Amino acid sequence: MQFKVHTLSRITDGITAMTISTKGIVIEGKQAKKLYTWQMQQQPPLMLEGKITPKLQIFMPDGRVKVRIKNCDIALAQFELQKLWLNAHISRLRNSISKLEALLERRYLSHGLLKTAKSKAKELSGHWLTWSLDHRLEAYLAQTRYTLEEIHTWQRQDIDDFREAFITKQLNDYEAFFDNIAGQPLTIAQRRACVVVDERQLLLAGAGTGKTSVMIAKAGYLTTAGIADASQVLMLAYGKEAAKEMQSRLSSAQLSVACRTFHSLGIYILTEVEGRTPKLSQLSNDEMQKRQFIHETLQSLCQDSAFHRNLLTLLKSNFNEDRGSTRVDFSSPHLTRLVKQFSDLIGMYKQARSLGNLQHIEAEFEHYLVVFRPLLTEYQLYLNNEQAIDYDDMISHATKYVKAEQFKSNWSHILVDEFQDISPARAELVNALLTQRARGHLFAVGDDWQSIYRFSGADLSLTTHFSQHFGPSTVMQLDKTFRYPQDLLDLASDFVCQNPQQIVKQVRAQIIGDGPSLVIEAQDQNDALQVKLAELEMFAPPRSTVMILARYHKQLPSKEYLAQQKSQFNGLQISAMTFHAAKGREADYTIIIGLDTSVPSTQKTDQIIEALLPASEAFPYAEERRLFYVALTRAKKRAFILSPKQPSRFITEIAEQL
Ligand SMILES: Nc1ncnc2c1ncn2[C@@H]1O[C@H](COP(=O)(O)OP(=O)(O)OP(=O)(O)O)[C@@H](O)[C@H]1O
């Protein structure tokens, strides 16, 4: 018969003798018709398992101790057994506890570490806290039991206090480091974002709050504090320019951490696995060439009469092509529109396919896909012939290699900038890299107020519902903006927060402005821009930077006009760009032009592309609103809006707040 005994008192009942030998412990007595096997290595150590036999036998790993108890002295037997058990296990307990203590002292109490500590404490306390110790042995165990009990019974407040104590200590130890690492001394909130190191961490902060400085300082802190080697830290920036800028700031801070774009990460992984650098298809970098390829391919596919019929039907049903026509007109504007749609769709469709997200469009868009699929096959064949890949392949192939462990990541810390613009495909790659490591860390930095790339697949919910997507995490905010004064901060924040889905952030401005920071002026003459530049040349300090901003490329001054202005007002440093391109940039003065009724854009996304994009937002013009927020927040000293005769509703709305 198998049985288990969990307490010492049970086995000491009626004991007449107990012998401890190299084989184990032999206990004799009234009840001792049992053979116990006490495997000292096993947990819980007080559990006895055995069979009924005339003797009670408990095996020990080393059996040099020898104790014999006579005359049924149960108390003594109990004491001796406890002592024996303590001697055999105390060093293991102390080791476990001191390892835990060392870990807690060295590392921030992240969600992962808390889980480990809790489960270790639970396991140990099952053996050490549930039995009453002979009072003569209490002192022997007191401190160790105390620590164990403390961890085992941690409540929310205790955890918060413990974390706070760690943060305070690190801020103190690394004070000089944080004073110097990023050019200017970091604020407390910036420092805290660095020393808190959770497995999943999101830093949410508005424009100009110094997120980039935190990225640099975080990388520096990780390496300086010995949490990771430089080679174990990977930084990811949204675009080439941002990655270059970040890399140069890393070099200035003498950090040998690499900063990549997602595409260069993809290339790196592919090169490592395939042993050669992948070739990027010509079609990926030249939109016109890609459209020409699609146009020609559709023409050649039309040699098949079924395909021709399907294409004609699609043009009639979706593009109002003349119902009576019997042949596809390859010079029609409808076909040109379809070609553009297909060009956009290729990437979207491939991303969705790699994530297994196509089912929902298959039935609804069958009449569309029946034309698109053969085209995609030809496109893929073309790439294969070229022995080339496109940008979407870079990410999806890299993810596949990481998942299959063909690529082994050395990165224990991945720092991602502009996280609000991450797409599900890119998030999947990051996740695959993180899960490869027992303790992979993600530090995501972003601003849900500046998410402006949904049209190319960015999924804002990856930021706004970070924990749902990435697991238990710490979300932090930065509380100070350095770029612009309080009045511009208030206007821009109120404007963007009209959308109740935006996360409210409490931010204060560091700068005190002289006069209003946002000025709306009627653009009542053709040369209003030139007049404004002349005015700035006269009043602004020499070498002031001026950014001319517009919603669309076509609203920006021509190259020639810009060159002329630059030479005429050479006391200023003038640049011109779209709102999208201005993200992440700043200038002393901005001049926002072209804000007519075409803003916010009312252009509808094609239905099939809409179906493949992340869920749309209920608030009207949500992304256009954020885009205007980006434009408003680029100026360090003053933003001028040159308001056309028929102004955008955004101008009217903001003017009411002035
Ligand atoms: N602790 C600081 N003290 C003073 N200035 C700072 C501090 N941190 C950052 N800055 C300055 O604030 C400005 C904005 O910083 P940064 O570009 O990093 O902000 P950001 O949060 O990335 O902005 P955005 O989201 O608009 O791109 C920069 O001029 C930077 O030098």
What is the name of the CATH class of the largest domain?
Alpha Beta
Q: What CATH architecture label of the largest domain applies?
A: 3-Layer(aba) Sandwich
**What is the strand arrangement across the widest sheet?**
9-8-12-13-7-14
Strand content: 5-15%
Anisotropy-based shape: globular
Number of strands: 21
Give the tally of structural domains: 4
Structural class: alpha/beta
CATH superfamily label of the largest domain: P-loop containing nucleotide triphosphate hydrolases
> Could you report the average pLDDT, rounded to the nearest whole number?
86
Written overview of the protein:
This is DNA 3'-5' helicase. The chain is an alpha/beta fold and 658 residues long. The chain is 49% helix and 14% strand. It has 27 helices and 21 strands. It has a 6-stranded parallel beta sheet with strand order 9-8-12-13-7-14. Strands 17-21-20-18-19 form a 5-stranded parallel beta sheet. β12 (413-416), α18 and β13 form a beta-alpha-beta unit. The N and C termini lie far apart (87 Å). The model is unreliable at 1-12, 20-24 and 31-66 (pLDDT under 50). Adenosine-5'-triphosphate binds at residues 184, 186-187, 190, 205, 207-213, 447, 450, 482-483, 584, 633.
